[in-house]
Amino acid sequence: MPSTFSAPKVSAWRMALMNASPDRADELAKRIAKQGPLLQNRLYRTYSEGDQVEALTEQLLAAAVDIGLKRSQELWDLDLSRQSKPDWHQQGAVGYTAYVDHFAGNLRGVVDRIDYLKSLGVTYLHLLPFFKAAEGPNDGGFAVANFEVVEPRLGTQADLQHLTQALRTAGISLCSDFVLNHVAHDHEWAVEARKGNPEFQNFFCMAHSQAEVDAWEKNLPQIFPDTAPGNFTYQPSLKAWVWTTFYPYQWDLNYANPKVFLEVVSAMMRVANMGVEAFRLDSTAFLWKREGTNCQNQPEVHWLLQAMRAVMEIACPGVLLKAEAIMPTHQLPPYFGLGDTPGPECHLAYHSSMMAASWVALAEENVSILQAVMQNTPAVPKGSAWLTYVRCHDDIGWNVLRPEAQALGDVNHQRLLKASHFFAGIAPGSYAQGASFQTTDLLTAHGTNGMASALVGMSTAQTSVDLQLAVDRLILLQSLSYFTGGLPLLYMGDELGMGNTAAEVLESRQGPDGRELHRPDWQEGLAQLRTQEGTVQHRIFSKLQAFAELRKSLPAFQGDVSVQAIESKQPTVLALQRGTELKGFFNFSRQKIDQLGDDGLAITLKPYGFVWLQTCVGTPARTLID
Ligand code: OTU
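# 3-O-alpha-D-glucopyranosyl-D-fructose complex -> structure
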């Protein structure tokens, strides 16, 4: 296929700078001087062919300059202030994630919830995909038909603009998903491809024979083995199999074609100019396909993310990049630019292993896997931070824990299987009311669905003692997330102990996706209870408020301060050290633990209790919260 690239005769971005106001031109030129060589280097590593890389660099720089020049004065100034204070997002950050429709009906409704978010100390709001989604089933908006047009069901471009402004005034950054790996089958690129346009056919990954499909499949895992088996979908109009890692209507993009990278990054920058301050880079791990591998976490993924970061640093340096790579612990650090593919990469990354392991610890009343995960978690580079969470809109995936389980002697992942049965409520003695996800084979652990409150036993509690224990479990998990994270993220409803989606609502939802179980609609009644002392809602909500306050007030909670597992005398207790002055103890058992610790520390933890301590040399340890 002939390259669509050729280097322009006169550099477009140099021309643009010459015609721009001197202050912006100077600043953009400075940023290009700093980031340009890095950008070009990462593109060389990815695409190797010289001419092509030079042309691509030129076009990316032209796009970045264009965005920089068009940035509103407010956003331009924000960039400058964040450049001079790169740790702006590091202190006291608290995140919240929600579907726009379930949370507030539409984007305008979200504006009305800002005070509520502020009362929880939220500084970062991730709204699940709100750009135009595929007609029909669309994976909760993750099948994106247009990267830049707001989904009409949820509002207009003006509503988005208004929301970003209102959030910013309240000190909250809006995070938007940016689905990097695929587009919807009715995105114009896919439509053009189906019409026979070779330029757009080259935007997608395709196989041209069953044998080719089989050769790839040999090494590929399946994300939705029950509802979307396989990784390819035959397209009669193309006489080819389109690569579809997720659902058949989500077509994987071909990043081996530099045009794809250019188009995607350009669209992302235009969205940044709408006032979005952070991007959740969905399914980052899958962007590069390489024969003979599982096509995940390939080095090119990191070179491309670093190139993306460099472009964003030129156009809109105040914007954060967050990696969504639901991968085993040892695969995560490279998304911060650590390891064999070094360089500035994402500011934030989901710690999915810590999340899953904290649930295993609860099921087993044993912290060994969780402790191993913490031991395998390196300190993050300056300016970056782990995103910690208890639940999100997806299932809890157990397979990310295989390496730790295996290293502890669980070669067949029986412990993970047991945990998944426990939370599906099918293990004897289980208090949980979740459901297995993509697991028709009961002998494999894939994922578990359910709202946190249902998984900790709030919905099965028969007595006030049961309920108390269930709430304690929920608070324990949140206390770990808030203690450990640089950005702890709450999933809508968990701050109120909201239960699973009601059965009749589930029936009305489109598509057979089990994850709808934990996508309930907002319940105003529960929200009202949060201010009434003695209610479960008040207990949970006020605890979260207290966590947020502490995180704001102590420098040791800065996002890049390292957290380490320290010796714990009890197999049910996780002990952590944060920086030099904080310690946290988390009891995952229903037994009270007496006299934990040494060094003069005599700690008692109630069932599912925890404590955060401030320990300064020479003074007795001070309890911050328990
Ligand atoms: C992400 O998910 C999204 O969070 C899901 O909601 C989407 O369905 C998916 O991408 C496709 O866009 O592995 O790194 O429940 O954990 O699909 C990408 C399984 C992912 C998800 C998994 C995840």
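# post-check
The CA atoms of residues 102 and 521 lie 4 Å apart.
Residues 139-140, 142, 179, 223, 246, 282-283, 285, 324-326, 393-395, 397, 447 surround 3-O-alpha-D-glucopyranosyl-D-fructose (CB under 6 Å).
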